[in-house]
Amino acid sequence: MMDWRDTVVAAETSLRDAIVRIDNCATQLALVLDAQQKLVGTLSDGDVRRAVLRDVSLDTPVAQVMNRCPITARASSSQCEQLALMRRNVIHHLPLLDEQQHVVGLSTLDALTGIIERPNWVVLMAGGLGERLRPLTESCPKPMLTIAGKPILECILEKFVEQGFRNFFLSVNYLANVVRDHFGDGSRWGVRIQYLEENKRLGTAGALSLLTTRPEHPILVMNGDLLTQARFDGLLQFHSEHDAAATMTVREYDFQVPYGVVRMNGSKIACIDEKPVHNFYVNAGIYAISPSALDRIPSDTFYDMPTLFEELIAAEETTAAFPLREYWLDIGRMEEFERAQHEWPSHTGNIA
């Protein structure tokens, strides 16, 4: 059972240490208290990710990043009142204060409602050819290659199930029968699985045109060759907070130039950067897409996710980037496949 005291940090705590606290207590929130145990702010998982996107140093004090005006409730309030307040304000955590404004508890949406069965659909892309993993993929689609004895796609599915998702669509093309035979209708996992049959390759967004009904809520879309410990509920919360048409998860990627880079002013050498490192954010292959954005996807046409985002940006619709801090691995090449065999069990606790 969670002890709210495990979430407490001081205003001068570094962002780096606060992230460790947030991850260890699994609440996606830290309470920032002063010496008198009074609340001075909160630091959410979303606050952290927004700070990362702004290139805020992890040595920065929490006070510079935290929410200074969080919504709170009296400790004497009923659970029904707390639940109503969280739902009304679309929040997942509610600090509880006594009459002297001291923090005496933390109410959470999950604790009050149990594991929420989320209405959001999940679409997993499982139709790729996996050419870079041949000969392994000559008789097995890439998402069905096994990591520590379990298909990649099953590892992905189970992560979603753990977080309350129950409605899945698997987009299939290459060796589709292998996927269908393994997953069936999903009843083995207590979920509903339907299939989007690509008669030709439609791309990571084009396959969404095969959905026969328009979803009522944002959907999650994920490539079927990824392993991650990402919090998908956090992605949806972030997507909602930014009122985005589409949100893309991103990962920080470092590239070191293996040579000394010569910077010139005309024919004169201005300086030499010896093997400089460049930092980028790259597409991590997991998306939250609002129903309105799906209307832009053409039918029966190859159409990738970057194209959808480019069109949304051109139309001046809101798109958001959700930086992943959690474990993430794209199994696109043999070296990543081999790396996953020993890394993934250690991240899931299933070590032989």
From TrEMBL:
- InterPro entries (alphabetical): CBS_dom, CBS_dom_sf, Mannose-1P_guanyltransferase, NTP_transferase_dom, Nucleotide-diphossugar_trans
Pfam families, A to Z:
CBS, NTP_transferase
Q: Where is the CBS domain?
A: 1-60, 66-122
Q: What Gene3D superfamilies does the database record attribute to this sequence?
A: CBS-domain (3.10.580.10), Spore Coat Polysaccharide Biosynthesis Protein SpsA, Chain A (3.90.550.10)
For this UniProt record, the keywords arranged alphabetically read as follows: CBS domain
Q: Which SUPFAM superfamilies match?
A: Nucleotide-diphospho-sugar transferases
Q: Organism's domain of life?
A: Bacteria
The name this protein carries in UniProt is CBS domain-containing protein
